[in-house]
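User: Could you check the structure of this?
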Amino acid sequence: MNIKEAKQQILNAIQAYLIKDEFGDYRISIEHQRPVFLLGAPGIGKTAIMEQIAQETGVNLVTYSMSHHTRESALGLPVIVHRNYTGADVQISEYTMSEIVATLYDTIEATGIKEGILFLDEINCVSESLAPAMLQFLQYKVFGLHQVPAGWVVVTAGNPPEFNKSVSEFDIVTLDRVKRVECQPDFGVWKEYAYYAGVHPAIISYLELHPDHYYMVDASDKNNYRFVTARGWEDLSEMMQLYEESGILVDHALAAQYVQNPEFSKGFAEYYDRFNYYREKYDVDAILEGGITAQNIADARAAGTEEAVALMNLLMDGITYTMRSCIQMEKMIRLIHPRMEDILVKINNGLSCRQIISEHIMDCNKSLDKAVRARNISPSNKKIQHWILHNLEAYLDKCTNEGRDNKNRCTVILQNSFNNLLHGANNVTQQSMNGLKYAFDFLENAYGADSNVMKKFIEELKINCHTTNFIKKYGSEQFYRLAGEPVQQPTYNNLYDLNLTDCLLEQE
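Assistant: Sure, the predicted structure tokens are below.
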């Protein structure tokens, strides 16, 4: 199965393991909750899907690489304790709490979340001295004398032996104690994730042209490994974006640090130079603002396959950026709105505006810190929380310096600030809708409504979570017409009906 299917299998298991009966006990006892054993080639996203599952379920995530653990760090250290048995004082040895188990309790205390996922990577690379203890752990969730807390699901992962010389293959006894989930690299599935994660469009378009360059591991020559992984492409993308923002040259030397196959890294570096030429040639930003020229259309019609694929991904990247920002802004406004209502009500009841906003800032910081510690917050939601904090801090400064903590002045400042947020969100929404319209207009004029290029563009819109969410929420008659699908009613609701007046009217 691919990594997306593997994720769903693990998510299903976790949800089932956390079902409780009418007495609050887990329906499947901890001894019968088989740990998941996720087996797959290196760098295909095993750790990434565990982070996504924690974000989707809201539970804690604690990860350990078992190849780095000794018997002592995993089981705890032996200590001598005194006991009295049948009237006789004796000394016996016990083990201190495992570092791993202790971390779970520390995480529960820090986050206030009792349930979680313990993800043990490279489980089939444990040291020989630790192997017997791991068999006991896989069945009873016990390290030494200390059991994993109830509500914590164990997921393990490992690489097949052909990828790692330290791998010890599990015997039947061990395999009979786990839920084995095996996954393989799949470019189509990774591309869906690439859109979600904002992978550089040059990488997406290059791999569409060369899908066989997406993943390759050659471990036949131990002195000269050659490999290309999904993790390598994503890490290269992040570095490329930072280089571009900083004006640093993206070249073959950079690509070779992440794409560790000379042929592939050289091929991508050369393609990246041509991609930049296409980017300048078409000025996609202008096209998405309605600046479609006859020359643009003529160039697109004359373009070869490589140029057409690059153009398609440039258009997708442009509309994805604004649509993702639109959805994030809407979510931020919906989250900050009740906080601003609370601030207004309290200052109009005579409390200090500075004090109330400060309390909300502290509460936001506390919630964010807990989510980061639990590792169940996505990068997008983390960004939204930072936006909220930034706005609250700006309101605090403005109410202090301009409002001077006066009830009436602070009320006006907060109402105007919230209206500015709504206005900004409305502008981004309109920009996104216009960008999609102009992209369709451009492609229809250049290639035709029934062309393969248009069909490919619609296919990409459907697998891109940001464009899919936006179209579902705000609608697009062109999309449904060109896709040959019945028009769906937008799910967009009352964002622009929100205000900070109703809460004050309710108090009168």
